[in-house]
Design goal:
The chain has about 250 residues and is α/β, with parallel strands linked by helices. It folds into two domains: about 50 residues, no CATH class; about 190 residues, 3-Layer(aba) Sandwich (Rossmann fold). It has twelve helices and six strands. A six-stranded parallel sheet has the order 2-1-3-4-6-5, sandwiched between helices. It is globular and about 45 Å long.
Length: about 250
């Protein structure tokens, strides 16, 4: 029979010593962080430039930056999608723990949970502005939860990064198989904001850079669950997609 007391007495002290060694290591990571930034920044210099310059069509990184200008770093951000999650994660910052929630991030790939997470965030923190950034594909998975938000009076703003496709999948197909073999990943221009309006929410359709920030301001001021449907550049490929495609290559 397993004797827990025997093992605790025999090995417990050694485990405690080992744990103490692990928890007392040097926590100064400044040099390491600097080296990571130096390696990473050249790869995203184009995105940094895109955040600061308007374009037609709108670059997704620019759209994220415009949203952040309005909502601020005190808001709660939920990011949901493929390429959308990447551009959201590299743009949004927060002053509080848990202020940027990667709904579709991590190993479990919970795509489509952005709107439910936003509703929960607003219920938990009614004093905060809650903004969910959805891809147009991920939006469709739980779009009907706008009805839940309206019925329970839980206002949030959903900004759709609408590249008219399952962007990560589409670009992956283009890189792996060629432009002429894209299959089942194009969605086209869909007026998702009309659905939010039909359910009692607020909606706007945006195609120009200068209209993004005012639309988000009006959505926040509406006091309703809101959908701002922003058409973005369908040709932009994120670093996350490049890594995604690299993972499918066979040696």
């Amino acid at each position: 029979m397993f004797d827990v007391h025997f093992w605790k007495n025999k090995y417990g002290r050694q485990v405690d010593k080992n744990l103490k060694k692990v928890t007392t290591f040097n926590k100064e990571h400044t040099a390491w962080r600097s080296s990571v930034k130096e390696a990473y920044l050249p790869a995203i210099q184009g995105e940094i430039d895109a955040r600061n310059n308007p374009s037609d069509p709108i670059h997704p990184a620019r759209m994220m930056a415009r949203v952040r200008e309005v909502a601020g770093d005190d808001a709660i951000y939920v990011i949901d999608g493929g390429d959308t999650s990447y551009f959201g994660a590299t743009t949004f910052r927060t002053t509080k723990k848990g202020g940027v929630i990667g709904a579709a991030g991590g190993q479990f790939g919970c795509l489509g949970t952005g709107i439910p997470f936003a509703i929960a965030a607003k219920a938990a923190r009614p004093d905060k502005n809650v903004v969910v950034i959805n891809g147009d594909g991920s939006f469709g998975l739980n779009a009907m939860e706008f009805d839940t938000a309206v019925r329970h009076d839980l206002p949030f703003v959903c900004v759709i990064n609408n590249d008219c496709a399952w962007g990560m999948i589409k670009h992956g197909q283009e890189m792996c198989y060629g432009d002429d073999r894209v299959c089942g990943s194009e969605l086209g221009v869909v007026h998702y904001e009309k659905m939010a309006e039909a359910l009692g929410g607020y909606g706007e359709f945006v195609e120009r850079d200068e209209d993004v920030a005012p639309a988000v301001q009006r959505a926040l001021a509406s006091g309703k669950p809101a959908c701002i449907n922003v058409i973005t550049d369908p040709c932009i490929v994120s670093l996350a997609t490049m890594q995604f495609v690299e993972g499918f290559k066979m040696e």
